[in-house]
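Worked Example 4.2. Consider the chain below.
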Amino acid sequence: MSGFGSSMSGRPVDHVLPSPDTMDSTSSLNWSPVSNTLCSSSWDSHVRYWDVQVQPPAMGGGGQAQWHSVPKAESQGHTGPVLDTCYSADGRFIFSAGTDKQVRMWDLGSNSPNTTQVGSHDAPVRSVGFCQEKSLVVSGGWDKQLRFWDCRSPNPVGSFQLEERVYAMDVRGGVLAVALAGKKIVIFSLSGNIQQQMSMDSPLKYQSRCISVFPDQSGFAVGSIEGRCAIQYFQQKPGVAENFAFRCHRQDLNNKTESLVHSVNDISFHNYGTFSTVGGDGVVNFWDKDSKQRLKVMDPVGEAITCANFNAQGNMFAYAKSYDWSKGSGGYGGAGGGRNKICVHYTPEEEIKQRAKKKR
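Applying the procedure from the previous section yields the following structure tokens:
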């Protein structure tokens, strides 16, 4: 895409969450919808969560945000890498999905680290989400199955046979967006009877890596391994820009005659409708899709960023520095040694609020 102008740059002193030195690559980050509690999933088979509080800098600038974070607990139950997590609507339960083919539930009110199995697949489970409209858990796996679970029943209450393996998934309100292998994207409506609403090819040329539904549920953003992101509307609206794609995680080389391409590892929408992308280049970008402007770019953190998420209030942005497996097992340096960090960035309004469209 053309015309994403840039604004603020630099990296303030972000808060590093206390975590065990043995923590492996982080695969997902999610905030509770009702509190400043952050959960993560890891390749070391654990789910962890923290209570995080921030005191904004004093008025007038020049100061730093003040942080207080407490590690609460880590789960037990998964027997392989955990690939995704989500919260229930009331924030009491964390649901997790992993390579052990299980979907598990952690009751945070039980004061126990033990989790309960609520579902399973015939292959690793890549993604899990919570459908608030139905009070159901939805999981997508590499067995090409999309399954819906009522935690009171051991059997799925609904399932869909998909064309390909699930690579990424996002649930927001009445919309479920699923990115599949083979560059396929499937959209489901969760209002009324759950049904497939549309199926399409990705607007990007290469494999999908992440997908995120707009806060107003009018479309979605999808990122790929080629360092590009696409903005796609379900229906074009009067006065709304057409669908477009743009480069976001690439480094220009040799006077911009060549590019070093990094995967777009995660996309997270702020409640303003602006959004972040993070990638294998270790860079965080904030964007405004409506005005087609880059709002902020942070300096590289020295390691790939595997996942990121805004809290419900919108004043905290969590991101994970971890190996993203882009170079296969040969690039893995092992857990420990402080390589894997989860950081939280204070997000003032001026960094993430929408901007007026630039005059042409």
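Confidence is low (pLDDT under 50) at residues 1-11. The CA atoms of residues 144 and 162 lie 5 Å apart. Compare this with Example 4.1 before moving on.
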